[in-house]
Specification:
single chain, alpha+beta, Elastase, domain 1, six-stranded antiparallel beta sheet, four-stranded mixed beta sheet
């Protein structure tokens, strides 16, 4: 049954399942993407060649090694025509042997790095793959094939040691090749170094600390399933990550690398593809013995290779031969990748076409087509997804059953159509092609968002120094030495640098109502002065199949992809809506239908601009699960109804926050237009302020003069009135015959004095 978890408030896209709150990238951390050095790829390939190749090319486990004992293996009982009711597959048990890791490094330099690997990385790695993959459990002990180990005699030792893959890798105890290891389905020997081992340079871990880990398989069972391998950590690189202030970010990054390398052990390797089997019958998809053939590899070289059958891998060439592509064409992988891009014409999932060491067709998914995938050639800092495509590959090997609940829908090219995969990323006019809009960028000055819209991003365009230009079929700019990363066919891609989900990234001056938090996403915006990306709270709404964004306290609806919403006329703020399939991938087919059905993208005939609605049509018509997988647990990253979203009251910002914020955030990226606008604004504001000040001063002076004149006039009037009253009283006394001492006359004079006093008060009041 399909079960649902309670939805969070607002939006959480698939990238938040393991990465709820990335801290910002540390200033002292190198944000260049991780990739394995080509020389290491050559070394690993040679190790696998000696480990997995058998002289007969018919099986990977030698006949001298005993078969692994399984209980009720479906391929065995089918041959015996036996039926069992119990499910033969259970969650894979993984054992990590860390004896060599501690022996190499416990006393040498530090305990922190070793403890970090054993106590933090390995338990998480075991839990992840145990949840992701099921196998037929080994009934008794896992016995390692001793003939595939590397013999080495360390200095001062009387007995030779046997290593898994290489003398610098983990030591396999003799008991593991005889008695075996109980209660496990895979054993991984863990080792590590700081750059030297026993006084000799470690060729896997350079002193510049560019490599984090390498891994290789070294033993298989009778059905060619890898049952033993080595993972070798470069502890100097681990130590660097422990010194950064963003330990959570580095843990996610280290885990992405560990998952990537562990996947190579389990089967994501060119040397493993040829040994894939039919999942129902166990019959090898590549007939045995495997006959070598002459073939043209991705680097253009022609050499003899033991190729997988056409049921597993197909190679195509362009008419000019300039572009060679190799595809994994197994059933589930092919259907998942078709559903991912909404292109049912794709022949399969493309492998990397840029040479990575000596591998003829590559060990990774193509970077150009699957940039966000955790098994592409490069791991970025802003989101790597364990995709349904990679889990489908494990299932198509015949060795595993996958639980697609751990997969994440990649936003990269999601639902963009066949043109995203087949057309050039930049057209002849130097503009991003329509299918690539939102994923690729046209210039180094472009600002946008990463594929999942969790990070603000800038455009990754590099200048390749050297005598040779970029290959002509990959030249997208006037400068023949400018382009994106090599592994992505030199396509310029937005590289995330500022996480919208981290509340600590809130800017000190917030002129445009940005909001940072778990539900915040990146949006491309335009104002009167700039074209930049900004972070706003957003939500995916299932009932209307649309995304909404909260700006200035009001929820705005994105009615169609790349719609421009006018938010604030005073600031000229406009927001460009992203692709719904990128910001809300979980509104579409869960796990890309797990390779068990077709994802049908249906357009609204009455509103063709609206994003399509997608639904799985399962091959098994009795299967009514949303993702064509009964074990799939869907985590709700959407809200069901838009009525749950309420507008909020926000405080208004100061008038000049726009200019202050712009200069504070991007002082070195102001255009000439921005400077002219800002200078003009300063002149205008200064002039207006000066005129207002002059007016206020003049008005104040005028009012003061008027008050003084009024005061002098009142004083003169009062004096004149007093004089007139005095003269009147004197005349009145003379007429009455005033005689000093007479009481009646005294009363009259007193009354006249009161009149004078009253008149004086009236004058003063006036």
């Amino acid at each position: 049954m399909v079960s649902y978890k309670d939805p969070p408030r607002g939006l959480r896209n698939s990238s938040t399942k393991r990465k709820e709150s990335y801290p910002p990238v540390a200033p002292n951390f190198d944000r260049r993407p991780y990739r394995r050095d080509p020389s290491l790829s050559n070394l690993i390939r040679n190790i696998e060649k000696n480990t997995l190749y058998h002289t007969e090319k018919s099986r990977t486990r030698t006949r001298d090694a005993p078969d692994i004992e399984y209980k009720n293996h479906p391929w065995t009982r089918r041959r015996k025509l036996q039926n069992y009711d119990e499910e033969p597959y259970t969650h894979m048990r993984i054992t990590f042997d860390t004896t060599t890791l501690f022996a190499q490094n416990f006393i040498v330099q530090g305990y922190d790095e070793t403890a970090y690997v054993t106590a933090t990385i390995l338990p998480r790695l075991s839990a992840f793959f145990s949840a992701a993959l099921k196998v037929v459990p080994i009934a008794r002990n896992l016995v390692v094939d001793a003939t595939r180990l590397v013999e080495n005699s360390p200095p001062g030792s009387q007995q030779p040691q046997y290593h898994c893959g290489h003398k610098n890798f983990g030591v396999v105890p003799p008991s593991h090749t005889k008695k075996g290891v109980a209660e496990t389905d895979v054993i991984v020997y863990v080792s590590g170094s700081y750059g030297t081992i026993d006084g000799e340079k470690d060729e896997f871990c350079d002193e510049e600390a560019k490599t984090l880990a390498v891994a290789v398989s070294c033993s298989t069972d009778q059905y060619d399933r890898p049952i033993a391998g080595s993972i070798h950590f470069c502890l100097k690189k681990i130590g660097e990550s422990l010194k950064t202030r963003n330990r959570d970010l580095m843990l996610h990054y280290n885990m992405d690398v560990a998952v990537h390398e562990m996947s190579h052990i389990l089967g994501m390797s060119y040397n493993s593809f040829r040994y894939f089997r039919d999942s129902d019958t166990g019959i090898p998809l590549t007939p045995r013995p495997i006959i070598p053939q002459m073939t043209t590899c991705m680097d253009g070289s022609v050499r003899e290779e033991h190729l997988p059958s056409s049921k597993i891998l197909k190679v195509s060439f362009s008419s000019t031969g300039a572009k060679r592509r190799a595809y994994i064409v197994t059933n589930k992988v092919r259907q998942v990748v078709r559903n991912q891009f909404n292109c049912q014409d794709l022949i399969g999932a493309q492998l990397e076409n840029i040479p990575t060491g000596m591998s003829c067709f590559g060990d990774h998914w193509d970077e150009r087509a699957y940039y966000s995938d955790s098994l592409s050639g490069i791991l970025g800092q802003d989101g790597n997804h364990m995709s349904a495509m990679t889990l489908a590959l494990f299932e198509d090997s015949g060795w595993y059953k996958a639980d697609y609940s751990v997969s994440e829908l990649s936003p990269w090219g999601h639902g963009a159509g066949c043109g995203f995969v087949e057309k050039d990323c930049i057209d002849q006019q130097g503009q991003v092609s329509k299918p690539g809009k939102g994923f690729f960028c046209p210039s180094k000055d472009s600002h946008g968002c990463n594929p999942g819209h969790t990070h603000k991003a800038d455009c990754s365009i590099f200048s390749y120094d050297g005598a040779k230009n970029i290959p002509q079929n990959f030249q997208y700019f006037e400068d023949p030495k400018s382009g994106g990363i090599v592994q992505a066919d030199y396509c310029p891609i937005y590289n995330g640098y500022h996480d919208c989900r981290n509340p600590d990234n809130e800017p000190s001056t917030n002129s445009y109502w940005e909001e940072f938090g778990t539900d915040s996403r990146c949006f491309e915006t335009q104002t009167r002065t700039d074209l930049y990306s900004r972070c706003y709270r957003s939500a995916c709404v299932k009932d209307i199949n649309k995304a909404k964004v909260l700006v200035a306290g009001k929820w705005h609806t994105c009615n169609y992809d790349f719609e421009v919403i006018k938010v604030d006329s005073f600031r000229g703020l406009k927001i460009t809506c992203p692709r719904l399939a990128s910001i809300c991938p979980d509104l579409f087919c869960p796990a890309n239908c797990a390779g068990n059905g077709v994802c049908l993208y249906k357009k609204d005939p009455y509103y063709p601009k609206a994003p399509p609605k997608a639904k799985c049509q399962c091959y098994d018509r009795r299967d009514t699960s949303p993702g064509c997988s009964q074990s799939l647990v869907i985590e709700k990253t959407w809200i069901d109804n838009e009525v749950e979203l309420k507008n909020v009251k926000v405080s208004t910002t100061r008038l000049f926050d726009d200019v202050v914020g712009l200069f504070e955030n991007y002082p070195d990226q102001w255009s000439k237009k921005s400077w002219i606008w800002a200078g003009s604004l300063v002149v205008i504001v200064g002039s207006v302020s000066y005129l207002i000040a002059r007016y206020c001063c003049a008005r104040r002076s005028t009012r003061k003069t008027e008050r003084n004149n009024e005061r002098r006039t009142n004083t003169r009037n009062m004096r004149k009135r007093t004089k007139d009253i005095g003269e009147q009283n004197g005349s009145r006394a003379a007429r009455r015959g005033y005689i000093k001492g007479s009481s009646s006359d005294t009363r009259e004079v007193s009354m006249d004095s009161e009149e004078i006093t009253t008149d004086t008060k009236e004058i003063n009041r006036s």
